[in-house]
Amino acid sequence: MREKQIGSIIVFYAIAVLFRFLAVKTNLFHFADNEFLKILLRGIGPTIGAFVSITLFKIPLKLSLKGNYRNLFLPLTIFWIFPVILIGTVTFIQEGRFPIMLLFTVLVYGLLEEIGWRGFLQEQLKNLPKFQSITIIAVLWFVWHLNFEFTPSNMIFLGVLILGTWGIGKVYSSTYSLLAVAAFHSLNNFFRNGLHEKELILIAVLLVIWIAFMVFYKRKFKTHTQTSELTND
């Protein structure tokens, strides 16, 4: 990597870790009484770090909510509105409440992280071998959570982050949509009381629908592009 890239990554990561530390290890952000705002403050560091690095190092990086999709409405509906309606409805039927604010807060939190991890860092490391890039992102992501104890649960968490880095990374390289990767990022965070049968079923349903949609759209878009090229010829 070039010195400019290394410098931009150092600045990005230093800011991301600093804001994470301030949010979870100090009382600095305790001015916020709103529970949802507190959640967002824990994940804002990667976004701030990314934009500071992009500005400071004049990186020509295009961050997009819609990515390869033709309009913003499509990924917003499939990856954000649909899971909120699905999970919210199931929760309402079982618990008598519709946690719409919590669900959207979780999605925004995922977006704040993904602007940094995928939108910035994955792009900066895209010229490295795939395994090397995934390892670097996963380790930095793990340390960013300030998990320094080598306990079995933390090692499992590191494994999950490695798998997540690979999977969410593929979603990003396929769609370049920050809305899409934020949704995949949020799958586990949607369920604050742990993963049980209901939660696992909902995750499976969302994964099947999202992946099927991505494959269908990619094939349809590819076919449309090829048809247009033939027509133009």
UniProtKB/TrEMBL annotation:
UniProt-recorded Gene Ontology molecular function terms: endopeptidase activity
Domain of life: Bacteria
Keywords for the protein's UniProt record, in alphabetical order: Hydrolase, Membrane, Protease, Transmembrane, Transmembrane helix
Name of one Pfam family that matches: Rce1-like
Start and end residues of each CAAX prenyl protease 2/Lysostaphin resistance protein A-like domain: 98-191
PANTHER family according to UniProt: PROTEASE, PROTEASE-RELATED
Tagged with keyword Protein transport: no
Chain ranges passing through the membrane: 6-24, 36-60, 72-93, 100-119, 200-217
Entry protein name: CAAX protease self-immunity
Keyword check for Metal-binding: no
Phylogenetic placement of the source organism: Bacteria, Pseudomonadati, Bacteroidota, Flavobacteriia, Flavobacteriales
Any one Gene Ontology BP term: proteolysis
Native source organism of the sequence: Chryseobacterium taeanense
InterPro entries, per database record: MmRce1-like, Rce1/LyrA-like_dom
